[in-house]
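This part of the workshop introduces the protein records we will be handling. An example says more than a description, so a record of this kind follows:
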Amino acid sequence: WPLAQEHCHFRSTQPVLSSASMVARRSFAAASRAIAALQVSPVKLMLVDGTALFFANFYSSQKSEMVNTKDEPIGAVHNFVTDMFLLQRRTSDITHFGVMWDSPHSDVQLQRQQELPGYKAHRKERPQGFWRQHMQAQEACTAFGWRIKAFPSIEADDLIHTYTEAALALGSSTSVLIVTPDKDLLQLVSSRVKVCGKPTDSEKEAFDAEKVEAKWGVWPEQFGDLLALSGDASDGVPGVPGIGRKKAAMLLKQHGTLIAVLDAAKNGLPLGAGVGEMLRGRLVEHADQAVEMRKLIALRRVEQADAQAFERELTIPERNSRWRDRALQFCKKENLIGLEVFLDEKR
C-alpha cells in the first residue's frame, strides 16, 4: 500500500504500515500457521493387548532354559519384551503407545463373569510360574517406559475400546493400531482403526474392514452379532443351537443385524437358503439369550480410565541416559542381557 499511494491519486482507507509493523505481522502469521500445523499433526496410537501377548509368549517359552539371577524361568518375559521392541521398530510413525492388561488380581471376578458364571470358566488353571512372570512382564513395561493400564475386574478388551474411542474423538487426523490375537476387538475396525493379529504382522497385514469381511463374512459392525448368534467357545459364550459361524454370517448378510434376524424368524419371514423351520424355531426359542449374549459381548467404556488424557499419559519414552540406566538395571536384575541390543536404538 505505501508504494501504491505514491502513484495513485486516491487516499487508501487502510492504515499505512511501517516496515517494522509488516515484519511483525508476517511473523505473527507464520506463528499462527505453525500452531495450526501442530494442532492437526497426525496422532497414531498403538494399543497392545498385554495379557494376550504375554499369554502367547508364556506358552511358547515352556521349553526355554532361560533363567534369571534367582534361577527362575524368565523366557516368557524375554520374548514379550522382544516382541514389544520389534513392534515399535516396525511402526516408526506411532506417536502414542499403551499396553492394556486384564484385571491385575487373578482372584477377582471379571465383570462379565458376574453376569455369566460360565464366562471363561472352562479355562484351565494357570501353570506354576505363570503369575510370577506375568507380574515381571508388567515390571518390564515400567522399566522400559511403556505405559500400562489395568483395573480390578476389567478386561484389556474394554480398555482398548475405551482408549480407541478417546483417540478417535480427537478428529479425522487420528488413527489407532491395535495388536491382539483376540477376535472380539475386530468390532473396532474402521477406516481409522486396524488390528494386527500377531506382533510379527506388518501394518499392511493388519485387519481392515475388507479383510474382516473376507475372513468372517461380516463387516466389523456386525461382528458382535455374529458371535451372539454362533457363540464363542473360547470364552464360554453360548450361541443359538445349530447356528455356526457360516450360517450366522449368511443370516447377517441377508438381514443386516441380529435384531432383524430374530424379527424375521419370529414373524415367519424368509430367513435365507438352508434355514428351515427347525432353525427358525431355535432362533425364536433362544432369541432372549442371543440378545443377552450380544450385550455381554459388546465392548464397554471404562470410566475410571480417564482415557481423554491419553495424549499426556500414553507417550513414547525418550530414550535418554536415564531411560537406558533404568532399562539396563532391569535387564541385569532379571538376567536378560540379550535385550541390551535394543537399548541403543533411537526408537
